[in-house]
Amino acid sequence: MNKTIGILGCGWLGLPLAKSLLTSNYLVKGTTTSEAKLKHLTELGIEASKIVLSEKGIKGPIEGFLEKVETLIINVPPKLRGASKESYVAKMEHLVQKIEASAVKHIIFVSSTAVYGEIDSVVTEQTLPAPATESGIQLLASENIFKNHSSFKTTIIRFGGLLSEDRHPVTMLVKKEGLKNGEMPVNLIHRDDCIRIIEKVIDENWGAVIINGVYPEHPTKKEYYTEVALQRGLNVPDYEGNKTKKGKIISADYLLNVKKFKFLTSIKK
Fold this sequence. Notes:
Layout lengths: L3 E5 L5 H10 L3 E6 L2 H9 L3 E4 L1 E3 L2 E3 L2 H5 L4 E4 L13 H13 L5 E7 L9 E2 L10 H14 L5 E7 L1 E3 L6 H4 L14 E3 H14 L5 E4 L7 H11 L17 E2 L2 H6 L11
Parallel strand pairs: 1-2, 1-6, 2-3, 6-7, 7-9, 8-13, 9-12, 10-11
Antiparallel strand pairs: 4-5
Helix pairs in contact: 4-5
């Protein structure tokens, strides 16, 4: 019988991931917070459920969604800005209680390099996190909720800045003036490689490891975003000439040298 994968959060990353897993003959269950999106997911062959996580609890058929799921991909961004922000940690605490009562044996927790904070050095998976933002703080606390659990194994993937052909940070940066830290390196990854990393974790059953998911080229922000803006026919981003910090380079050596992963999609696409 084909393995059942659950994707909690079929959005910008989760939906194309679900489509790719379907082509590999996995059974895919997915969630959305939108009633309107349920039909679309179902038409694609995804067993869809409307699930809404909040700091007060979980709305929707979470037990039914988790039923028969062997590997669960938690792909829910913190969203801690604005008037409607809620505790991400509280959401994950509600979720882990439901997972404990299910048959899930493997968690893939989609995290962020924001957990490392403002370190001025090369960062590996052994670097002690020192988050400097509320998002980073809550992501690290949530990682620990799953990492320290005994009833399932958790793979934590700390992705760098995410991009794709149709969603690129340069489109927002060119609208701003006086951008800072132009001499700092970029730590980015294309969505296609994110999907390939997650699929490799599933296919090879990597288990309880932490992974830095970042493309192994790190031009400065000013160099990189200027080049990409020119490629797209946009105005060049306005960076100030400050060089006070070196910034961090997120190392992908574990993926490259231990797991022999090959990045296939340039961040300059």
